[in-house]
Amino acid sequence: MNRLPLHETGSRLKKVQQTITEMQADACIITSSVNQYWLCGFIFDGFLFLFPGGNPVLFVKRPSNIDDERAKFIRKPEQIPDLLREMGISLPGRILIEADQLSLTAATRLQAALNMVEIKNVSGELRKIRAVKSEYELEQMRESARIHAYVYGLIPALYHEGMTDLELQIEIERQMRLHGSVGIFRSFGENMDIFMGSMLAGDNAQVASPYDYALGGAGISPLLPLGANGALLSPGTTLMVDMAGNYRPWMDDMTRTFAIEYAPDIAYKAHQVSIDIHNAIIKNFRAGALCSELYLLAEEMVNQNSLAPYFMGTTQQAQFIGHGVGLEINEPPVLTARSKEVLEPGMAFALEPKFVLPGIGAVGIENTYIVHESGFEKITLCEEAMVVLS
């Protein structure tokens, strides 16, 4: 089993235990796959119990082959109280749960089983802790970004005339899997279904989506209305590729844009403005900056270039230009006009100022940056100019 380094799990446990103390709770119960992995290095169906001090306890329903001395195997949560008593642990009264991810049915059953006096939501606090990465985590992201950039470099050779967006996406996905992609990536929030990433060709980029991503797309089914819709890749339009950088548990995020044979001048202008926004933000900001300041600078540059009607969509315009990245694709911080979040050393975020041009398609780039005291480190090192597919 590929376990995390002990110093990683130990430091994370201490941070959660400090949160338990600060929130005046007796215990914290972790049920989400992401936070189980973050704390244990593996996931399981069950409950990870953490206390203000000492070792956590794993109450595992499945799989049955977990090799961990802290594991206690159960069939149902009602068995937990007796097992705690056998270990000499009093039933906790005030308990922190991941209420943003645990269903009401599961939370109610757990509360009844443990006779909880009080429940508090710890989801937001855990996301804040995870937003600041260790050097181990950041190196995982750098490794993912290196592979991501290599696969994107293969895209021109995968294209041929007469392809649809879906046919090209299938070829890109094949290369992604051959180079280590896990095949899906995790996102936070209700109804945030996703697959290996999104490709938007031509006017499909204008189609609004129910999902809280930067851009939408019709998809190939009403069951998953997002991304490629089977459109022919037509000369004079653009193709935006926003496929997942999920080559390591800690991900990167990157978007690149391609012109099908050629693109109008306005497409090149808007694409360059996206690049200019990246360069201006890299030049002017570092750790300690308000996320809102990054957004406002981008908005100012968009207005100066008379591109506001196309910024982050047309029929439905996203109100952010970036987001944190890590074990999930959409972690804190979020780069919006109203954000109060401050960039801290060790954070990683994806910056994605994009434009959607009617009759042409989406243009712009997305890069992932690591925040340092002295500035931002770009880890998605791939050609940024619009590449022509012919």
Q: What's this model, at a glance?
A:
By secondary structure, the chain is α+β, with helices and mostly antiparallel strands.
Describe the protein's architecture and organization.
The chain is of the alpha+beta class. The chain has ten helices and 18 strands. The protein has helices at 6-22, 33-40, 80-86, 104-114, 123-131, 135-153, 155-158, 165-178, 265-284, 291-304, and strands at residues 27-30, 45-50, 57-62, 71-73, 94-97, 118-121, 197-201, 238-245, 252-253, 256-260, 320-324, 331-336, 348-351, 354-357, 361-364, 367-372, 375-378, 387-389. The strands form four sheets. Strands 4-3-2-1-5-6 form a six-stranded mixed beta sheet. Strands 7, 8, 9, 10 and 18 form a five-stranded mixed beta sheet that branches. The protein has a five-stranded antiparallel beta sheet with strand order 12-11-13-16-17. Strand 14 (354-357) and strand 15 (361-364) form a beta hairpin. Helix 9 runs antiparallel to helix 10. The longest helix is centred in the C-terminal third of the chain and has 20 residues, at 265-284. The radius of gyration is 23 Å and the shape is elongated.
- Calculate Rg over CA atoms: 23 Å
Taken in chain order, the helices and strands follow as: HEHEEEHEHEHHHHEEEEHHEEEEEEEE
Helix content: 25-40%
| Uncertain segments | none
Globally, the shape reads elongated
Instruction: Note the main sheet.
Output: 6 strands, mixed
Mean pLDDT: 95
